[in-house]
Amino acid sequence: MMKKACVLGLGYIGLPTACMLAAHGYRVTGVDVDPGIVDAVNKGMAGVLEPGLSELAASSVREGRLVAQGAPAPADVFIVAVPTPLAAGKKADLSYVKAAASSLVPYLRKGNLVILESTVPPGTTDGLFRAILEESGLSAGRDFFVAHCPERVLPGNILHELRHNDRVIGGVTRQAASAAKELYSAFVEGEIHLADARTAEIVKLMENTYRDVNVALANEFARVAEEIGINIWEAIDLANRHPRVNIHRPGPGVGGHCLAIDPWFIIEVAPEATELIATARRINDGRPAIVAKHVLGELRHAGVRRPKVAVWGLAYKGNVDDVRESPAWEVIRHLQEAGAGVSLYDPYVHLSAVDPRLRGTPGLSGLRNSVRGADCILVVTDHDRFKEIGPEQVGPLMRHRFLVDTRNCIDHETWREAGFVVKILGDAQRMPDGRPQASARAL
Fold this sequence. Notes:
Rossmann fold; 2 domains; single chain; eight-stranded mixed sheet; 443 residues; alpha/beta; elongated; 18 helices
């Protein structure tokens, strides 16, 4: 008899996971509180820009192995993959986790396996999550199994990484971890490591905190580079040729549901022991304001009054449509609060994903409209498509020709040859004699 799985949350992680289970022997019920998502999935549409996902979702629905609805259904396995955003005070908002766990209570039966995939502060799985499930009258460990298996995938490559990445499974009991391993073994080709639930929770947080701290270090290096008159990108490339060094890339800040949020979950449970982590968070959260200030300063220095800035890139990283926690939002906010006009262009992002306060901002849907009458192009996201745009396509439409590249992803010489003033984050442009230009300002 085909086993049944019920996946709660059909977003960037839940839907790919549901599709993978459907493709590997499970009859899957996908659950989401958004009727639009439920309707889209039942029509075989992914709703998430992810290679191969639309095709996999369509075949799973067409063959009757995946159905979406607004409430759970009886199953052998329940997987909770709902958001855990930040609440006020930089604390984890576990309201979605609580609601999902509560919705499962009427459906729990002896022998069920319940897996929490959502990223949570240490202690959540064996604490709050387990306690809510036990309101069913059943006991975790005796009557049913509870485990935590955090996702470890990269948007833009999710299906591949779901198959090939190692997984860490933390069980409330050893038996729960083993039961979860059996489930994931259906499609995971990487190694599966077993631990207790609290260890699995913090492993996920540690992975993203490591990256956040490394980016903060790179961002400080970028500011130092401009102070002393060097190109940080060249310096990082040379430093990383050391076999034990891996400095990340600087930028306008960090985004996504992981790097900008997960470190706060560690700070929340151990505030006195996380001074370095908290400092890195402040550095990266402060980057958008610094970028906006730099852009406006350059334009004022050039005599531009009432500037219009064309912001290229709303997604938090290149070649995806994911706008969650993107530093672009804060950059835009700071520009607007300073009185600048802002236009937006992102070839991947749809209007429905945009912050409601920004809808209607000119230029969201088209390249030409974004630069028409603009004084500066500000590259916030390193989409490959931006590299294909030539200055001759946009220059004639602009009032002034400034380009600020926060990702070092544009062919700068081509743009300079076309008459643009080009500024690069972390690059103190030099005079012919090697001295830093006097007008260089630190990003």
